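Form 7-S
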Amino acid sequence: QVQLVESGGGSVQAGGSLRLSCAASGGISTKCMGWFRQAPGKEREGVAGIFPGGGTVYGADSMKGRFTVSRDNAKNTVYLQMNRLSPDDTAMYYCAASADRGYWRGCGDFTRAYAYWGPGTQVTVSS
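Output:
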């Protein structure tokens, strides 16, 4: 059982930066951790995933260039550093953890790997 709570969202102007945090209860050292986002009228999309060993994967090249996911297993915390933000990044951002058991193709398998979810934190980017 894992519980996740995001923080760090808010409003920022285009070109600005924001760092999101995800605090987890229970151990996450053996889990994939991921960030997702969902904008109004759009489907949820995977933003970034991070393996237990620290390897990372991003949902798109544009995200890889601007976003950085990291983790601190000792603190049961995951981060998403977001730079050069655009209004297109406006969305609710969710932290997620992989299932206890199942089949997927790694922490970048955003469709199937993740089973635990935080309530989300809003990110709004203005022009």
